Amino acid sequence: MKSIPLKSDVVVIGGGPSGSTAANALAQAGYDVVLLEKAKHPREVVGESILPFVWKYTDLLGATKALQKMRFMEKSGGTTFWNNQLTQMTFRDFDFQTPALHVERNIFDDILLRTAEQKGARIFEEVIVKDLQLNGYDNQDVFYFDTLNGKSGKISCRYLVDASGQAALVAKKLGFREYDKDLRFMSIWGYFKESDYVALGGDVLPFSQRYETPPTTGIYQIGEWGWCWQIVQNDQVSVGLVLSPEQFSEFKLQDGNLEERFLSACRKVPLLSDMLKYDTLIPGSVRAIRDFAYYPRELAGKGWFLTGDAAAFVDPINSAGVLGGFYTGYMAAMAIDDSLKNNKNRDYAVERFSELLRGRMAVYRLSALPVGVNSYQEMYPYALSCLKQMSDLEKELIYTQMILINRTENLDIIYQLDPDFRRLTSKKYTLLDELHFPASSPVV
Amino acid sequence: MATNTQTIKDTVKNYLMTEFLPGEDPNDLTDTTPLVTGGILDSISTFKLVGFLHSKFDVKLNANEIANHLNTLNDITDIVQAKQGVA
């Protein structure tokens, strides 16, 4: 059996999309990369809606063909029901050459991890990182427990990528994770064997038609603050509730176990409630986690970089989580490559990586969060830089998502930052009067 | 150390051709070809380019300069010279 080496150029903690991306890109660049993952892949994880930009990264990683082979569900767009308004967007209008997907994340993530391994990264699963010592450039120690042989050990490396997800090991260790106190929420989600779904034009179709007429991602507002997702996959439908603390207190007061309470909460979501087949809930599939939006004061330092959810977590509403994982993982790899090739570049690589991520975070916070919780004005100059480097396509998609989830209050801030953003806001969404149910038709 | 205009331009052009436009005709990349708005530079390639400018010419660009001064070969040459303190 292969054993974890004592040393490597780079250690990546975590085998989700951002960890696999960083490990893959660095292995391709010729570095000795060790990736430590606590689970055994394929493993369960939520977050199944994937934006079409991800293919740019899967091309770079050499993972596109393997992913295409899996024939993940291709989605045609998004449907939102917000403030009593039905709105729809389709990726077709954006001239994307590649599809947006609803994926089984266990398979998706497994393929990315195996591809990183094929490119030369050494992957060790079921290894739990217990502690870290960041001792400046070229000198990081990672202490782990290998559950396969019951042994503890240490690996030293020049650079560390923290892709540990919400565990956020480095940010916790260094004590600089900042929580958004106003943005606590609870996610409760589960999987149904089937459900009806909304197609383009507002037609509600049975699950059996998902291949002939692809689904949209459904986003339905719950009360003032919460929302719910509906994601039709190949063999199941993911439905999740994102609730404010007040809404969750109410949820907890309902009778029954978690599954029963989940079902009764789903029954109260307008429109969605008419599409679900309640008796097809897959037993044992309901999960609940408490989430906080957060970001760390530092995103990189002398010899370490944070990526994916370990860098920041906002709100899953715009399906940008996995894309952010690819982006930050790849940028960390570029920064490390630059640093290892050119010692004198290393401080500057840390600076640039941090500025890029701050900018991107600021843009996504502005696009996803309700107005009033975006008071990180110190990040705005970086947001401008990020906007300037975005393609028109990316900007248009962000704009459209903001319309769909009613975050337009924040558009004024974006316009002030980048007046050019105004030019791009062509109307690529459709307001719908109602959904067309097959038989009896509930009116909006 | 200051570098003259043509040297900067040639060095950057050579880098852009090798890294981001391999196999393309160098004559198609003029001093005023839009790099960012024209889709030649995205955030990944910009990141690499900025690292290259630092290691080659010892200049550090801030977020604002990266956002506004990298769209053409002329822009890049100008900002590198300005940062090097050459009129």
Keywords, please?
A: 444 residues, alpha+beta, 8-stranded mixed β-sheet, B: 87 residues, mainly alpha, Non-ribosomal Peptide Synthetase Peptidyl Carrier Protein, Chain A, 56% helix
Overall description:
The complex is a heterodimer of chains A (444) and B (87). In chain A, strand 15 (216-222) and strand 16 (226-232) form a beta hairpin. Chain A is globular. The longest helix of chain A has 23 residues, at 346-368. The model of chain A has no long low-confidence stretch (mean pLDDT 91). With 444 residues, chain A is of the alpha+beta class. Chain A has helices at 17-28, 54-61, 64-69, 105-118, 169-174, 245-253, 258-267, 272-275, 308-311, 321-341, 346-368, 380-388, 392-404, 411-417, 420-423; strands spanning 7-13, 33-36, 49-50, 73-75, 77-82, 85-90, 100-102, 122-124, 127-134, 140-146, 151-162, 177-192, 197-198, 204-205, 216-222, 226-232, 237-243, 287-296, 300-301, 304-306, 430-432. With 87 residues, chain B is mainly α. Chain B has a single domain, classed as ACP-like (Non-ribosomal Peptide Synthetase Peptidyl Carrier Protein, Chain A, Orthogonal Bundle). Helices cover 56% and strands 0% of the residues of chain B. In chain B, helix 1 packs antiparallel against helix 2 and helix 1 (5-20) packs across helix 4 (73-84). Chain B is globular, with a radius of gyration of 12 Å. Classes of the chains: A alpha+beta (444), B mainly alpha (87).
